What does this fold into?
Amino acid sequence: MSRAPTPTWAEGVGVTVSALSVIGGAGIAVGWWFAPQRSHLRQKLVLGLGVTDFVQAVTTLIGAALDAAGQPYETNSPSCTASGFVCAWEPRRDELSRANADLLADQTCVLTNACWTLVIAIVTYTTLVYPFSRFTALLETRAAFPVIAALVVFIGITPSIPVTILYDMTNATGLCWLKPGTRSADLMLFVPRAATLSVVVILYVRLFWFFRRRDINIDTVTDPDEQETEIAGGKRLSLASLSTRLSPWHRRSSDTLHHPPPHNPRSSSLAPIPGSPVTFSQPFDPAASRGSKVDPKQSTIPPPAPDPRTVSRDHSTTVFEPTKSTMPAGVAPLTSFPDSRQHSVSVSFTGVEPPRSNSTASSIDPAQSHPSPHPPPTSPASGRSKRFSSVGWPGRLSFTATGERKRKRPLTPRQISKRLSLLMAVYPVAYSCLVAVSIARLIKQLSTGEAAAPGLAWTSRFLITSQGAIDGLLFVVVQSSFKRWMKREQG
It folds into this structure.
């Protein structure tokens, strides 16, 4: 069987590219074995792609090496039989049986490579756009990869069998294929590659608009349970959380400063103490315990004289009515505390204790000066006031808020899956770039019916045979990027 002469440089480039593809496909398999995330579906899909690249690269390497050595495939040779496993399917003349076997291997690799790329693109799209759909949940099961692998192999082998039986094959510089220039040969390459390229472009355009329209990033939590967890964790020491907790204190302060407190009957008079020689008969002035504005005209009135009935014969203990301090007319009520405890007088058997000064009263915790009949407990309020007074809580809140923004939380498994899916998206992009030249060449041949230029034909062939090398390089880049990414996020 005659064959077209092959330039020397083309033979050398073909052997080199095929060898690099073999190394790349084997590297993917070895790297997957040592990868910590090898149980993930994305890693298994890349493994299937690497195995396909390896088989295709071995087939092209053997054919290119034999062609470069001047010893092309011989009819029914062991190498030909090893490269094709369905020789018995075509019992025609010996020259075609060898080509049919090699065709089945090449055609199967073309279809399975396209299928693996398409599956990776679909899984990436569904994981990022529909992370909680039923289809995405099925992809996370253990039976997902065996089912996908069986479908890919079935789609790759089934069309190759009738093509091998019905069409004649020729040797094309180490590769056995349909006769060059025929419409059948062009369609067998154009249909799977064009369909895969179209689906990848559509899915990635929709993915781009999805992120742009929703203004979200890869770490956005869309699960309601995870969202509640993150919100609760974020408000644990945040400024908004402490502001919410301090709102009752602000309301109490506002009521104390701007609203008169309710009348407390316990502050109107003092009940006599059983068994005590001291008699409390002079009630306190109810107006003194109210939050009314101080009249400057009444501030100069001297205190009334003590009631002589309050003086005991055995003990000279006197009870005085609380006096009103002099206050200018322009002073706002912010400087006065109308609490009854400010005007209270302590009674003892040795004399009258002086009332507490304004500075002492102003240092009282606002939580303790509650004007309601049922003030809060003393110990929690005093503990809270001591904590905020001893430590400058505005600065602490600012520091806490700043630290909260800088603190890194561990990524959830779903966020890790999203990041890995985003990195896996480079494989369909690389496939689309490699087959774009081949699709352009096939479109020209189908539309004009003429053979493509030699330069375009060789470029298309070298790009296709370099898929294993490109995928192996991308595997190294993806794994190293993912490790650096996770190490940076985990601190």
Summary: DSSP finds 17 helices and two strands in the chain.
